[in-house]
């Protein structure tokens, strides 16, 4: 086995399938929604209040995509007024450890990345 044979998991079908999933998971709002729902069941308004800067439209789209992908469960209650709650599924909860690992990597490497960016800036 070559040293980099394990990267076949990433390259697979040219990376198309993995890229499509990672594009969804790593978008601007998905991990914030997942991390917020890690607290437990929340109503739309509660979620919206706990995620600064997200619009109602983006929260709606993000929740729909997460529900479609099986990471979030939506439960509607037949009440007046209607009540809807969102929670993480088992698959959604399984995203927390790798997301924390990625966040930890980012935090650990911020100084290096910022220094590299500063060096890379073209002279003005």
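Sequence proposed for the structure above (124 residues):
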């Amino acid at each position: 086995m070559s040293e980099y044979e394990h990267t076949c998991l990433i390259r697979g079908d040219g990376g198309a399938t993995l890229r499509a999933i990672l594009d969804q998971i790593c978008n601007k709002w998905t991990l914030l929604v997942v991390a917020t729902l890690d607290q437990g069941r929340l109503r739309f308004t509660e979620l919206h209040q706990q995620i600064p800067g997200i619009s109602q439209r983006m929260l709606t789209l993000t929740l729909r995509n997460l529900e479609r992908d099986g990471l979030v469960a939506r439960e509607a209650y037949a009440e007046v007024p209607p009540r809807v709650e969102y929670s993480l599924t088992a698959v959604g909860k399984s995203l927390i450890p790798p997301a924390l690992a990625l966040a930890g990597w980012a935090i650990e490497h911020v100084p290096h990345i910022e220094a590299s960016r500063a060096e890379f800036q073209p002279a003005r």
